[in-house]
Design goal:
The protein is α/β, with parallel strands linked by helices. Helices cover about 30% and strands about 25% of the residues. Bound molecules: flavin-adenine dinucleotide.
Length: about 270
């Protein structure tokens, strides 16, 4: 097995999650896997951005695309270029400003991690969610430490509210807010920074480039996945290898989905 990794370190988004000091133990998920790969003699080529020809040069029998995704903005009527991604806050590439509005319609740890970092930086933060409580994708146990940080740092929490657009006025940003419940309702916030979390868009270029060259057309037979048999349909007998994708390269999901995709499909090779 050869792993091609674009970054200089393994771990992808999990490494980003550990930028919240309170959650740094998540790195165990990566460290254990790296130790296992080392034990099993798997070669990892770091700083290697894999394109179609790099993969073909290895003459593989099986190609697993686990390229994850990149953050995307929520649908905005205007102001796409004015908002900051939660990833930039987590990575430390953009510092929190003084007055921040964070809009999270993804509902997981991504937005909450960024919110906690912003609150701990001393910024005045308003957390806005279209849901009836914030971060519904997170379990109740995880609600507690975030809520503690938010209350201790005086974070304002606004639910049932959507971010519609962002515009610049002077040296500030104006966030226009709307409601799913009352059509004409509008609100406005004047802040220094608008941070958004809307999940990821699959980074699927490599998968799509390899798909026509693969034996199974990049497909999984889900009936057979459940009932038994070869889960890789013979769509293109001339194809040189079996291809499948896992994790956020399929859709914006979570660690569990990425791990389970890998196990379920990997066991059937
Ligand atoms: C801040 C934050 C907190 C999170 N917290 C949680 C949590 O608590 N629980 C949870 O379940 N989920 C959490 N998630 C989501 C979870 O981390 C992702 O769903 C998961 O990491 C997806 O795994 P993946 O392997 O599919 O993709 P990624 O983690 O995105 O990894 C993709 C990897 O592929 C590499 N790559 C991409 N393109 C190429 C290429 N062409 N060539 C070579 N390498 C390439 C990248 O460098 C990266 O290492 C969090 C995400 C973030 C951002």
């Amino acid at each position: 097995v050869t792993v091609l990794e674009a970054s200089s370190q393994a771990g992808g988004q999990v490494r980003l999650a550990t930028q919240n000091p309170r959650r740094k133990e998540l790195i165990g998920i990566i460290d254990w896997r790296l130790a296992e790969l080392d034990r099993l003699g798997v070669e990892i080529r770091y700083d290697t951005w894999a394109e179609k020809d790099d993969v073909l040069a290895l003459s593989p029998d099986v190609v697993v695309v686990a390229t994850g995704g990149l953050p995307q903005n929520p649908p905005l009527a205007a102001g796409d270029n004015l908002v900051t991604s939660s990833w930039d806050i987590m990575a430390g590439s953009v510092k929190p400003a003084e007055h921040v509005l964070l809009y999270d319609d993804n509902g997981g740890h991504q937005g909450m991690g960024a919110a906690e970092l912003i609150a701990n930086s001393g910024a005045k933060l308003e957390l806005v969610s279209p849901e009836r409580f914030f971060a519904p994708e997170m379990g109740g146990m995880n609600h507690v430490p975030y809520m503690r940080a938010f209350q201790e740092k005086g974070v304002t929490i606004t639910i049932n509210t959507r971010l519609l657009s962002v515009r610049r006025e002077g040296n500030q940003l104006v966030a226009e807010l709307g409601s799913d419940f009352a059509d004409g309702w509008r609100g406005e916030r004047r802040v220094d920074q608008v941070v958004v979390e809307h999940g990821t868009l699959p980074l699927d270029d490599l998968y799509l480039a390899l798909k026509p060259l693969s034996r199974n057309g990049g497909a999984i037979d889900y009936e057979r996945l459940v009932k038994g048999g070869d889960i890789f349909p013979a769509r293109n007998p001339q194809g040189g290898f079996v291809l499948f994708r896992i994790g956020d390269a399929v859709a914006s999901r979570n660690i569990h989905a990425a791990v389970y995709d890998g196990i379920r499909f990997g066991l059937r090779i």
